[in-house]
Each structure stands twice: as C-alpha cells, then as structure tokens.
Amino acid sequence: MAQELFLHVVISLAILLFTAKVFAEIFHRLRLPVVLGELLAGIIVGPFALGTFVSFDGRLQRGRRCDPSLF
C-alpha cells in the first residue's frame, strides 16, 4: 500500500513538472513570461495529476485524496 502511494506521488509530480516545462517552453517561444506557462500548466494538469478527479483506473472519483498520516 505504501509503495503504491509513493509511486502515485512520484508519477504525479513527474507529470506535473514535465507539463510545466513544456508550457514554459511554449510561452518562452511566444515571448510571454515563462512563469505564466508554468502556472497555467499547474492549473490545467494539477488536479488530474494529484488524483483529485481521475484515478489510475479511469473512473471519476471527485474528492479522492491521500491520507496525510501515511507520510
């Protein structure tokens, strides 16, 4: 259980960081502030990457959160 949670967190952070980097590069090429691209990526991808709306099996589970006591 703890390994699955750890893997979920690592994969979620990797997806979020990768998307932020891609959006930052797009905004840089458009000569817009890079931080706006990173913020937009976090707003768009954040809830999905952190598991708030969609779980790994593809079912909608709004409000699903990790138990903080596991950390």
How would you summarize this macromolecular structure in one to three sentences?
Helix content is 62%, strand content 0%. It has 71 residues and is mostly helical.
Strand content: under 5%
Shape: elongated
- Rg calc: 14 Å
Roughly what is the average pLDDT, rounded to an integer?
77
SSE string:
HH
Give the arrangement of secondary structure elements.
Layout: H1 2-29, H2 34-49
Structural commentary:
With 71 residues, the chain is mainly alpha-helical. The chain has a domain at 1-49. The protein has 2 helices and no strands. The chain has helices at residues 2-29, 34-49. The chain is elongated. The relative contact order is 0.15.
Q: What keywords describe this structure?
A:
71 residues; 0% strand; elongated
